[in-house]
Design goal:
The chain is α/β, with parallel strands linked by helices. The protein has five helices and seven strands, in the order E-E-E-H-E-H-E-H-H-E-E-H. The model has no long low-confidence stretch (mean pLDDT 97).
Length: 173
């Protein structure tokens, strides 16, 4: 896996001050994407054990609320297989931090139903995410006044409540 950037004090991609990891590789190719360079699976730098350590170290500060995964596309299967390892370490080392993940895939259609996004670690990865921002960016539905998303169709899903209640529960901000 490759990644484009690590932001250690991000306030744009989730509630509170966050560490954000922008992964590389995306097959959605949304019209109007704000980072089309991340569509390339080899964009940026190789993700290594040192990269993982950098992310985990950045999460240890008291002022950091949590980790955000975005890109690119975290739920491309080749990215999931590496990211699930990171999430395991986050949950083991800083369990009080929350995890947000942005995806162009749709939760009920692509991530829990049969699709090209699903692989052997998808369910485990979903089990460790607190907020899933789902849905492709749709330029015709762009709205810069929305918090933590770019277009009207995208949803902020509270995954623990969604799993518990067996229906989509949106995050209340």
């Amino acid at each position: 896996m490759y990644y484009g950037a690590i932001k250690k004090t991000d306030i744009a991609n989730g509630i509170g001050v966050r560490v954000s990891l922008f992964v590389s590789g995306c097959t959605h190719h949304c019209k109007g994407c704000f980072q089309p360079q991340t569509w390339d699976f080899r964009y940026g730098s190789p993700y290594t054990k040192a990269t993982e350590r950098e992310v985990l170290d950045a999460l240890c500060h008291d002022y950091i609320k949590g980790l955000t995964l975005l890109g690119g596309e975290p739920f491309e299967p080749e990215n999931q297989r590496e990211l699930v390892k990171l999430l395991r370490h986050v949950k083991a080392n800083v369990p009080q931090k929350d995890i947000w993940c942005y995806t162009g895939y749709t939760y009920e259609t692509d991530l829990i139903g049969d699709s090209r996004a699903r692989c052997e670690v998808t369910d485990e990865m979903l089990s460790m995410i607190d907020v899933l921002v789902d849905g492709e960016f749709v330029e015709a539905e762009k709205n810069i006044s929305l918090r933590f998303r770019g277009s009207q169709n995208q949803r902020l899903i509270d995954l623990p409540k969604t799993k518990q209640q067996k229906k989509i529960i949106l995050l209340e901000i």
